[in-house]
Structures
1.
Amino acid sequence: MAATGAGEGNKAAAGSSASLHSKTLLKSEPLYQYILESTVFPREPDCLRELRLATASHPMALMAASPDEVQLLGLLLEMLGARSAIEVGVFTGYSLLATALALPDDGKIVAIDVTRESYDKVGSPVIEKAGVAHKIDFRVGLALPVLDQMVAEEGNKGAFDFAFVDADKVNFLNYHERLLQLVRVGGLIAYDNTLWSGSVVDTPDEPLAAATREFNAAIAADGRVHVCQLAIADGLTLCRRVV
Amino acid sequence: MATTATEAAKATEPKAAAQEQQANGNGEQKTRHSEVGHKSLLKSDDLYQYILDTSVYPREPESMKELREVTAKHPWNLMTTSADEGQFLNMLIKLIGAKKTMEIGVYTGYSLLATALALPEDGTILAMDINRENYELGLPCIEKAGVAHKIDFREGPALPVLDDLIADDKNHGSFDFVFVDADKDNYLNYHERLLKLVKLGGLIGYDNTLWNGSVVLPDDAPMRKYIRYYRDFVLVLNKALAADERVEICQLPVGDGVTLCRRVK
């Protein structure tokens, strides 16, 4: 991810937008703001900040990934030397842009969402301006059929370095089965919202919390992956495919 | 954690803190230098325990469990790397395919073992700590795990070792990964040297960069002496790393805060 962020412009933007990102699993809001203000916002590329702020005014803004999370995703992609990625759940395209920035010029991302309305309206212009739109192959539709089709296509098995899943939680385990065929051995699958605001312990019987707990237990027991569950954003679980 | 010669005086701080903790009657597994009721940087102990019980302990190698238990009995155990952090390090090493690594600050060797287990058979770790005794406490677990041969342990302060390495051009850009969990007042000094020794695209991890969350406390808030003493160094470190264009960074609330730096220049 290009680190082009230093300067006064950033400071002003950071100050006004700090309160936009207030869901955290950390022990205090100020601690989270500290991370954002000292390490995230000063290094945020202009286009990513633009898309972050544009997304923040969307009525469903809570669906978006958080800035510290996309910074990590970008770093992971670069560490992996990733060239190809899958994104399940796009919304305005904030994490998609972060991914696109981290891939080389001939990198490719298959981005799947049931609608491209928010993407076309909010993210696409920024992504075009950033010069990385050519890396994105947007597929509209329910993710399961799209993924099934990808698995069936020649040459897709083990062809991807990375996948980010930020979509309907009830289908995570179904996506997992397909992604384990599409992502290469040694590649990474990242699942968002795996701590579900802490409800996994606060209200464990509530349906979505229960589904999340079930997912967490299942992948922790899945010998095909090594896992690491980070309490960043709303809980990000990294799965490295080993078999 | 402490690796400079002058650390001897300051070394009493973690000891004093540990004694404080024991006096509180905290019988269960000791953790980092956290307050009572907050074993981690997370909003609740229950949430942290959930992560440990769900994703960490079921996958923790036997040798690491053993080393963790041996360390828990040690009076200075608040210096140890937490289990979730060990798992994270393990994953990082594998993701980047690291082979030649370094660790500054060993204590009983929990993060060292996590690293050693993740490295390939011919992987190496140059490990430095001013205290060999603590390392020897954990060494039997590391030997039993069959990975002790990957470790080159040097007793003593780290700066002279780093300076020696730098003196030989051959060592420049030769390391894939370095984990620094040591004296906070020397992190920036280590940083300057590590940026020469780590390869372009290589990774440096700095531990304790959220310093128990004290980085956001007002100056007059009550805090333990050694927390207050090193807090300024941590604040300066975080500012410096964020402004350093030679690295891309990411600060994660794993353990006591880990800042990952990927060398790009």
2.
Amino acid sequence: MDFSNESRVLHRCSAQIGNLLLRSLWHLIHFIISICNFTLDIANVLESYLISSGLLGRYKSLHIAKLRYLAIVIESEGAYQTSKIIELLQWLDAVGVKHVCLYDIEGRSSGFSLSLGILKKSKDFILENLDGAMLFQVLSYWQPSIYAMQDAHENNVLLDRQHMTLEFVSFSDGKEAVVKAANVLFMKYSKSDVTDKNQKEKIFTESQMSEALKTVGSGGPEPDLLLVYGPARCHSGFPAWRIKYTEIV
Amino acid sequence: MDGNRRYAKKKKINDMTGYDAGALALLHLIIYCMELGVKYVTAYAFSIDNFRRHPEEVRKIMDLTMESVMLLTWISKLRLVRVHFAGNLQLLSEDIQNAAKRLMESTAGYNNFVLTICICYTCSDEILHAVEQSCKEKWDDGIGIMGYDEGNDYERLIKVVDIEKRMYMAIAPDPDILIRTGGEYRLSNFLVWQSSCCHLSSLGTVWPEFGVFHLVWVVLDFQQNYHYFAKKKLQL
């Protein structure tokens, strides 16, 4: 009996020691990874300085015209630093990027109340301090006759390479905008003459969804490139309908 | 699961054999994930956009899907795996549709591990389908055009929760990690709605060469940034 008790105690102790060793090994691995990531970060900062100083020849010609629309995810802390955002936009303008969309994760609606994103609140200040920049905004219109004017305006703005255009997007332009667009489509569905509303065939198309998103003011173009900053790559709820095929870096 | 054809080119084998290697890599991944304690795995097998590929390639992938359904039927019984097919299954041939539905029904009661295969799937189609179903359900509930106009009762409107419960991916929670092989940095219309707080990992390796060390590396990377993602989830 004593022997079996002792063997149980021994087994328990060895299991605890094993767990402790595994946990220590796990912490050691993460410590090594942190050191490697830190070294890589230093190397990236060094490379950035070399690129901006023009010492690295292969980055001298950027072919920036291929980048038609750039989007950037700004974290909440960064969104309050308006001067740094203006500096970033000035750099982008200097490099030749003409159409920029700034996204911050604040701003959501609940029932009939709406809180604007941080960047949307400071957009007037940003535009004033950026020479020649224009606001790109998809206005919410309900009259179909306005759509043609809006489309023409959007095309003219995006083709304009003289001025930088800025679009400000927040979290409420993501899932909540899709929900608003769904309600617009529901209104059309309810009014439609479809006799059998239980049919299994598709009733909406992707272009109708895109139009409905434009109706609610969240139908901007799809960015070619989405830049995210932070320790890990994550698009933070950028409007899903617009980043289906966007490069996220 | 990018890189099957590049793998075939590298190994100087037939392109179609590259897809077989990809299917084997997925099977290995399922086993590794089970051993690691991961409960939900979703694989992007075939996009609606992929129907534009060469017909022989599409036929090969469909044949492979049928073989995979047979294999998964056997595995699911041994390891109590729930198998779910997410996507517009009506675009599949009738025999694959029926086999997939039978497998889903027979494994519906298992919850040890949930494997979702996205086939004939795009996120935009998923969102559209969810919106359609929400509209039909609101109509069936009697919430029609009568009295429905701008600014009326909020409760009569479609909400985020209505759409999310009708998504093909409603069976699984939002992913923590999304891995794309083949060195690509775009999502290509895969889980764009569900990946708001997800760690997006892009690996240079091609899919058939994806192994346990790649998986462990991605998981360690996720663990390094766990607090960042936890904070983001609270914000969103």
